[in-house]
Amino acid sequence: MLDPEVTAAPATADSEKKLSGSMQEAINPVQKTSRKAQKMSEQQHSLSSSVFDQSHWQILPVDTSNLNNIEEKINNKTKPVGALGQLEDLARQLALIQQSPSQTTSRIETRIEINKPVMLVFAADHGIAANGISIAPSDVTQQMVLNFLNGGAAINCFSTALGWQMKVIDAGMLSPVSDNARKSASNMLIEQPTGQGTADFSKQAAMTQTQAEQALAMGANIAAQHIAQGSNVLAFGEMGIGNTSSASALLSLICGLSPQRTTGKGTGITDEQLGKKIQLIEDALERVNKVHGTKAFTPQTALMEVGGFEIAQIVGAILETAKAGKSILVDGFIVSVAALIAVRIAPRARDYMLFAHCSAEHAHQQVLAQLDARPLLSLGLRLGEGTGAALALPLLRAAASFYNDMATFESAGVTV
To answer: What distances in angstroms separate CA 272 from CA 134, 140, 251, 265, 277, one per listed residue?
Structure first.
């Protein structure tokens, strides 16, 4: 995680506003060349609506007409009202999502199901990393992807221990993995690079309009594939040296916050590197303002100017998951920035988001405030990879278990 740049509306706290709630072709497990990706891009260009338009996604709001019945079911369990705290809120939201009108059945669901939860870890490189604002060079992105494929990372351990299916997506690394690694990891690796790393956004736009559109479409396709296979809980992780810089720049740009408020030490850079990181983001904001003028920046402009390929693909995956009416378990700072962008594109996507944790990256609290989100965990994590989301899955299972199986006062013969 780490990187900087972008130009935004005057970066002031005054412009901060809270948000509240409310493609078709499956990618093969391993994409052998980028030609298919280019073909997808051309197909997406022919669509009548842009992937950056709310109308493209047609996300239905969560149906709250059955809310009283859901709350009555929770309150009648053998416990004082509210005694299970945030687990009750979690069960309520899961129940609302699973009986929403976007589901194929018209009947009201009486049980919460956690089916085939999948962790999709997107990896890409960032041009901003060449400025030495990370603890590691860009080569480490590919090295960590190989570690994922060999089962050696924290996210692998948590996914195995807690029951996640895990996939790793090359969304735009500088160098693809070797043929040998590709063959040995054919069940885990998905290759759909939008490009070979973004440009240095302190000097120029990170990506083209075509790449930004393509990235959202490709991320959506991955989510749609796993939803079609029966997954109803999707979480997203990321890996990319320099990607906290991109996330910080995106947050500054779309919320009008100063880089001092949106930028932290990521995975552990020095004070000198932090100062340089902030300066590069300020340079980017100045550059973007010169190009676009001082105004509110759209998600499309923000991603083009200072985004990352993995962040953009996660945005598309989030929107597709919401469109399908499935639960989105949001990880830490970088994935939360992607979630914020998704909500700026299609506000109803917020209804389907569950927030796993609050990370040690101080700017994460800014993003959570923008999303009016209350995270489930606060463990001081600052690793990324989807680790915080992975650790929250047992809480979803616990919420489902008490909602489905806990006795009521009447059934247990308890008089209060």
So the answer is: 11, 21, 22, 10, 9
Question: Does the predicted model carry a pTM greater than 0.85?
Answer: yes
Hunting for tokens 């299916």 — which residue is that?
Answer: 165
Beta-carbon contacts of 400 under 8 Å, excluding residues fewer than 6 positions away, are 91, 94, 111, 112, 113, 114
- Does residue 326 share a domain with residue 255? yes
Which of 107, 103, 81, 76 is closest to 403 using CA atoms?
76
pLDDT in tens, 272-288: 999 999 999 999 999 99
For residues 43 and 108, state if they share a domain. Answer: no
How far is Cα 399 from Cα 403, in angstroms, rounded to an integer? 6
CA 255-259-263 angle, 5° bins: 105
Angle, CA 45 vertex, CA 228 and CA 320 arms, to 5°? 25
SS3 label, residue 147: helix
Residue 17: what pLDDT?
Answer: 38
Per DSSP, the chain holds a count of helices (H) and strands (E) of: 17, 6
What does the pLDDT look like over 321-378, one tens digit per residue?
999 999 999 999 999 999 999 999 999 999 999 999 999 999 999 999 999 999 999 9
pLDDT at residue 153 tops 50:
yes
Instruction: Please check whether residues 229 and 83 belong to one and the same domain.
Output: no
- Residue 298 in any domain: the answer is yes
From CA 283, how far away is CA 265, in angstroms rounded?
18
* Token digits of residue 354: 């569950």
Residues 6+ apart with CB under 8 A from 149: 168, 177, 181, 184, 185, 188, 189
Give the integer Cα–Cα distance in Å for 274 and 388. 24
**Distance of alpha carbon 246 from alpha carbon 337, whole angstroms:** 10
CA–CA distance from 239 to each of 122, 139, 270, 346, 409 (Å)? 6, 12, 20, 25, 48
Give the pLDDT mean for 228-236: 98
Beta bridge partners of 357: 377
CA distance 374 to 404: 23
What's the CA gap between 341 and 11, in Å, rounded? 17
Per the domain annotation, does 1 fall within a domain? no
The structural domain count of the chain equals: 2
Check residue 404 and give its pLDDT: 96
Q: Which residues are catalytic?
A: 385
Rounded to whole angstroms, the Cα distance separating 96 from 91 reads 9
What whole-number distance in Å separates Cα of residue 24 and Cα of residue 35?
Answer: 17
